[in-house]
Amino acid sequence: MLKFELRPQDSKFWRLASPLLALVITVVLGIGLFVLLGKDPVRGLQMFFWEPLKSAYALGELMVKATPLLVIALGLAVCYRSNVWNIGAEGQFVIGAVAASGVALLADKESGRWFVLAVLLAGVAGGMFWASITAWLKDKFHANEILVSLMLVYVADMVLGYLVYGPWKDPAGYNFPQTKNFEAVTQIPRLMTGSRVSVGLILALLGAVAVWIFLFRTRAGFAQQVGGLAPAAARFAGFSSRKALWTALLVSGGAAGLAGALEVAGPLGQLTPYVPAGYGFAAIIVAFVGRLHPVGMVFSAVLMSMFYIGGELAQSRMGLPKSITGVFQGLLLFSLLACDTLVAYRLRWQSRGV
Amino acid sequence: MESYALLMAATLNAGTVLAIAALGLLINEKAGVVNLGAEGMMLCAAIAGFAAVVHTGSDGLGFLAGMAAGAVLAAIFGLLVIYLGTNQYATGLALSLFGVGFSAFVGIGYVQEKLPQRPSFEIPFLADIPLAGAAFFKQHPLVYGVIAFVFGLMWFFYKTRTGLVLRSVGESPQSAHALGYPVRRIRFFAVIAGGALCGLAGAYISIAYTPLWVEGMVAGKGWIALALTTFATWRPARILLGAYLFGGVTMLQFHLQGLGVQVPSQLLTALPYVATIVVLALISRNPAWIRINMPASLGKPFHPGS
Fold first, then answer.
1. Which of the four, A98, A134, A206, B216, has the lowest number of CB atoms within 10 Å?
2. Please, what are the averages of pLDDT over each run of 10 residues along chain A (354 residues)?
3. What is the CATH number for B189?
4. Interface pTM (ipTM) of the complex?
5. E strands, B114-194, where?
6. Nearest to A142 among B80, B91, B284 (CB)
7. Cβ contact A144–B91 (<8 Å)
8. How far is the C-alpha of B244 from the C-alpha of A245, rounded, in Å?
9. Do B101 and A327 touch (CB under 8 A)?
10. Any domain includes A109
């Protein structure tokens, strides 16, 4: 029978190969799903893995969706490496978007171009504020951060709903639940004409570099992670676990809030009830599939963006529900967790009776 | 007064959903496994149960389908965390994310479907008592069933040998293993039982509580159920009380809206979630209190030494 045997050391090979194997398994399951639904699997795969790459415009759209995913995942990686389980990035994203919108709505025709900076900073502050509720309750009351951060996602959605259906509703908007379109000065500058890719992409990539330096080249980043790996060692070394908790949640909240600001002041251009698109949850998968490593997450963010675009195309061109994206995302994370067993264990065939 | 009787009835009904799910989660947590996939299991069970009733017309088969869906998903989760030793938090989260997507995907064809005429229930004679009849005696059988189940579960945990073994697996898997109990198999069955009950709760939502299918209709009840086990410090009777408390908070918003209280509806809808956070913070305030009551190996994997 098959037996798992503990490796003397984690396998470096499988640490990298496991996400790839997980992707292969997800694709195989996906083919099965298409066949089961009576759809052409080749065409199905094309929607996910070829259409998003085939033109400059498509590539741009791929980056537009990868940007918020990467920004949020970078923050979450810092969090998870410190063993702080913030799963409410979606809520921090929403409140970041709300705060950014609040500032953007203050702009008028005379406002200067610096306004966009205020919008982004408001987003960061909003996300940090929302995450700090979780940090405070964990720090002061030991309340479980998983449940608190998740509950706050629902509360954030209600705050957003209240504002767009109530005080912030565009009076000239035919009663649609949305704010007026933001002034041009609050718009995130685009990188080139003919594509929706914005400066946000550059910010995301700079963020990846910053997170890499913080995690692997600074003492503070080291202290941050020791608490997650070996709490006792961290205590002996005098690293504060409270500081690690606050840093983790403020960094991830701020990143999610920034992503929210980039979204409302970028592709959306106004606050609507459709701001929560599940990026906060998908980014959790991005973080894990990217091995909580900045370079890995750049790739996994692009992959997850392909899942989003593929889902939309499968809906419009093949008549499949858009929620197929969520199915694939979930399958990918499941497969990854299963494949990760191979990092610490080796499979051995053993005849019975030994 | 009539409206208070109806509020009471609605509270019991809403509390029942939370209680069934939380009692299920209690079983696997007593065995040392925390399953964050409750929300996903409940959603998949809700659509499975709803679809079964649409196709067969039988509520009983609907509940069975829901329980089966929950049990199957829990089995996948159990295989990963118990036999492959994956991280319980991450795997549960994967189950929730998958469940949200998968139920929406499968349920797309059922959004417009209607269930056959819903049966109404009443206990003969008792239902005719003014006020109390409307408040207590016109409920779905499961509302009474869950109360009986709590007593059954207390008896199981604290009075039977199997219950003792289950708890010992959660408190000290090493000792249970040394005594020759199959720790991993016991945990696996506990996880499946928990999944089946979450499934029953999910099916109850789409078949009896709000008889229809809407994407994401569980609306965080799985997460609230998870919070309830902590809130109740892992005791069955307190789970039931907590569930009614939260059921009451959920229903209070509709009652207040009915009374014409001038509060934005979104803020009232947020009430159960805010209440969960506040209660969780208050109950966790004393870490020693939680540590005494929590199954000691909760969330930790167990590898039988070779």
1. A206
2. 78 89 95 90 92 92 96 97 94 98 92 92 98 97 94 95 92 87 90 87 96 94 85 82 93 98 93 92 94 95 95 90 89 91 82 58
3. 1.10.3470
4. 0.90
5. none
6. B284
7. no
8. 34
9. yes
10. yes
